[in-house]
TrEMBL record:
GO cellular component, one term: extracellular region
Pfam family, one: ILEI
Species of the source: Sander lucioperca
PROSITE patterns to which the protein is assigned, alphabetical: GG_LECTIN
PANTHER family found in the cross-reference section: UNCHARACTERIZED FAM3
Record keywords: Disulfide bond, Lectin, Secreted, Signal
Localization per record: Secreted
Similarity comment: Belongs to the FAM3 family.
GO molecular function terms noted in the UniProt entry: carbohydrate binding
Protein name per UniProt: ILEI/PANDER domain-containing protein
Domain ILEI/PANDER: 16-96
Length: 133
């Protein structure tokens, strides 16, 4: 699975919950792009799909309330707080009945950032649960 993002983005591959096969991978420019393609993708996710999302540089400028609500419905808690140049990784699923344990969020804070204008790298690991088909 190649997740090399463009310069500024929110990256979102989706997998089937049953086999783990990649269904779709997309990159969205949330700094100067349009949020509509992201919203369309989020609306098209089928029940049982596992969704991985990761920020790269700037995930939040164009992220509107509709997109945030759709991501929250996949199990994200942190998407509500996601701001300019925050670091965020998330694994959730359509049809998930609980909030994701597979989410990390690191606020962009110039006083605490490791790389001048950017927070430290974050990672998540673990076994992803099956989601209902």
């Amino acid at each position: 699975l190649n997740l090399n993002p463009p310069k500024v983005s929110l990256t979102s591959p989706s997998l089937t919950g049953k086999t783990g096969d990649v269904v779709k991978t997309a990159h969205f420019d949330m700094y100067s792009g349009d949020v509509k393609p992201l919203v369309e993708l989020l609306k098209s996710i089928e029940t049982g799909a596992v969704v991985l999302m990761a920020s790269y540089d700037e995930p939040a400028t164009k992220l509107n309330e509709e997109a945030r609500k759709l991501i929250a419905e996949l199990g994200s808690v942190s998407v509500k707080s996601l701001g300019f140049r925050d670091n965020w990784v998330f694994v959730g699923g359509k049809g998930a009945s609980v909030h994701s344990n597979f989410e990390k969020y690191l606020k962009n804070d110039n006083a605490k950032n490791k790389y001048e204008n950017w927070p430290e790298l974050i990672e998540i690991q673990g076994c992803i649960p099956k989601y209902p088909e």
